[in-house]
Every structure is written in structure tokens, then in C-alpha cells.
Amino acid sequence: MYTFDGGADENSSIYWLKSLKILLSTGKWKRPSKEISPRFNLNVGRRRNRPALSGENWLVNYYRGADKLCRKASLVRLIKTSPELVEACMWFPESYVIYPTNLKTPVAPAENGLHHLINNTRTDEREVFLSSYQKRKESGEGNVWIAKSSAGAKGEGILISSEATELLDFIDNQGQVHVIQKYLEKPMLLEPGHRKFDIRSWVLVDHQYSIYLYREGVLRTSSEPYNSANFLDKTCHLTNHCIQKEYSKNYGRYEEGNEMFFEEFNQYLVNTLNITLENTILLQVKNIIRYVFVFYFHPSLSTRKFAQLLFMLRGLFFYLQQYLIYMGFISMFLLHENNSKNTQQFPCPL
User: Fold this and answer.
1) Distance between CA atoms of residues 337 and 330, nearest Å
2) pLDDT tens string for the chain (350 positions)?
3) Alpha carbons 81 and 235: distance in angstroms, whole number
């Protein structure tokens, strides 16, 4: 019998809660009776600052520097300051880091392009955003954006708008850094229902930095038809479970728990588009993961000077652009990382 350490509360994601249930359901794992025990085989919660006991090997879900992966502002800053890849980064939407004006801690305006982002971690990009917004407006390009709290979860701290002043006013009334990101205005939609969805895949990085993609993934689906004319209705734009369950009377109407797993989605793609999941979408998922974990994050992450065996389990979110399907492939965009836990089976090495 193995033991694991890790708690859950009302702020835990549903995937984290499911992972605890999966471990317990195997009959091979149990939780120590004490809330924090010095004796366990697997730490699936936060890292414990205690040395492993003699003769025991701990597996701990922690990599130094991993916070850069799951906070949106850090993710944007890290990608934009990687000059060897940023120009070719077609899979990450145009994004800007914005600080509320009500913060007491001073921030630096992004007057010198990426130099400020590199040299000052508290750089506000609102002027750069406004410049891009104005150029799009003058050229008639799509100009819908989404503001997201850097550390937000469960659909909180989000505003979708085509008005720059509305987005900035929204952020300035908040208490933490936000990211303004170009909204994908032509997403691929599911039928029936003409509904938006995102794809969630899980990546495991072991203590030797070998990278694995879990074979099973899930689509989080909307309950309501996508409506590009109404950005106030969160249920047709945000696929977050908490939003769908709380605000949509159609929650669970199309898929149980508003989730479609890869096997069903693959059949849907074959029937509707005559393509397979493996040869189109998953091919791009693997390529993006290689970029994210090998080129961007590998230099920032470390397991040195830890007695425990460290690993990292991360979820990635993707959306699909609709209009590129007709070119024979589907273009995917990485939205952000999430450190919610899940223990799906059958890892597939990249």
C-alpha cells in the first residue's frame, strides 16, 4: 500500500478533486490520517520543505520556476522575451501585460519594446496595446480582446470587449496584474448547438526532464450557441465548468458534465471533416508542447539541490481557429497553462 500527501478545499479544481478519487479507487493508495504527514510516497499537492526520511523516496509535484508556467502574465512575459522563437510563435495569441493604475507599487511603461520586459519584471504594456488596437481599428481587422486576471481561476476576473477603454477601465478597478489577449473571433464550433469548446491536455515532466503527453484528453464544451454579437453572455464564450454549471440552464444537455473525451471527438472529426485527431490536432499539440517545455521553460526550471524525486504535472488549454480548417489543417492556439492536477493513465512520450 502506498501513501500520498495532498489536500483539497473549495478552491481546488474539479480535476484535482478527481485525481484524489482516482488514487483512492485503485485500492493501492491511501492518505495518511494526519493532515500533514512526514511519511508518504507521493506528494500531489504543494512541495513540503522537509527532507525525506532515511530509506524513503518521495515523489513531489514541484519544479523550481514552475510558477512561470501557470501565471498568465509570467507566461506572456517569458514567451515575448524569447527572441529566437517569438517571431515564429504563431500558436500564441497577441498578448499584453497590464497593471492596474491603482497599485501602489510603481511599474515601468513599455517605451522601448521588449527591453523593458527583459529588464523590468513590472512592465506595463498598455501603450503598446493601444497602439496595436488602433492599427487594427484603422485597418478594419477583428478587434475583440479578452482581459484575464493573471492568477484568476474558475472564470473569474475576465472581460471580453471590442472597446479598449472598457478593457483598461476594467483592469484599473482590479487589484492585480492582468493580461489582455487577442480574442479568437472565429473558433471551431461543435454541432449540434453551434458551441464553443477548448481542448485540455496533460503533460508530465519527470525528474530527468523527460516529457510525456497523456494519451487521453478532454474537451470542455459550452452549453449555449456561440454569439459573436454578445460578449456579456459568459456561457457562450467561456467553457469553464464553473461558469457553465452556474449560469446555463442547458448544462449537461449535449455532453455529460460538458465534457467530450478524445475517442468521441475523434469520431466527430472523422464524420464531419474527414480528418483524424491524431494526424491533425494532436500533431500540433505535440509540436507546441515541445516549444513550450524545451525551448521556453527548460532554462527556467530546476530540480537541483532537492533530495526528493521531483516531477511536474501540468494542464494546457487550446482553442481551434475555424477559418483555417478549409486549408486542410487546423490551427491551434495555446491560451495558458494551469497547474491543476489529474492522474489520467497511459503516458505517451514525446
Assistant:
1) 21
2) 677 665 555 455 555 566 667 777 887 777 766 555 556 566 655 555 555 544 456 667 666 666 666 678 888 887 787 765 555 567 788 899 999 988 766 566 665 555 555 556 678 899 999 999 999 999 998 999 999 998 777 778 899 999 999 999 999 999 889 999 999 898 999 999 999 999 988 888 887 778 888 888 999 999 999 999 999 999 999 998 899 999 999 999 999 999 999 999 999 999 998 999 998 888 888 888 887 777 666 666 666 666 566 777 777 888 887 644 433 344 556 565 555 443 333 344 55
3) 34
Cβ pair 235, 248 in contact under 8 A: yes
Write out the DSSP string of 93-147: --EEEE--TT-SS--EE--STHHHHHH-SSEE-HHHHHHHHHHHHHHT----EEE
Task: Please tell me the distance from the alpha carbon of residue 147 to that of residue 46, in angstroms, as a whole number.
Answer: 28
Continuous segment of H or E residues that includes residue 271: helix 262-273
Calpha distance 261→219 (Å, rounded): 6
Q: Report the distance separating Cα 178 and Cα 168, nearest Å.
A: 10
For 297-305, which contacts have Cβ atoms below 8 Å and span 24 or more sequence positions?
297/65, 297/68, 297/69, 297/78, 298/209, 300/65, 300/68, 300/78, 301/63, 301/64, 301/65, 301/66, 301/205, 301/209, 302/63, 302/64, 302/65, 303/63, 303/64, 303/207, 304/64
Type of residue at 143? N
What is the DSSP annotation of 246-262?
HH-TTTTSSSGGGEEEH
Tallying the residues shown for the chain, one arrives at 350
| Residues pairing with 313 in the sheet | 204
DSSP classification of residue 85: H
Distance of CA 124 to the CA centre of its chain: 22
In contact, 225 and 193? CB cutoff 8 Å: yes
d(CA 78, CA 117) in angstroms, rounded, equals 9
C-alpha cell at 293: 517545455
Distance CA 133, CA 129 (A): 6
Q: Which three cell numbers stand for residue 349?
A: 512520450
Rounded to two decimals, what is the model's pTM?
0.77
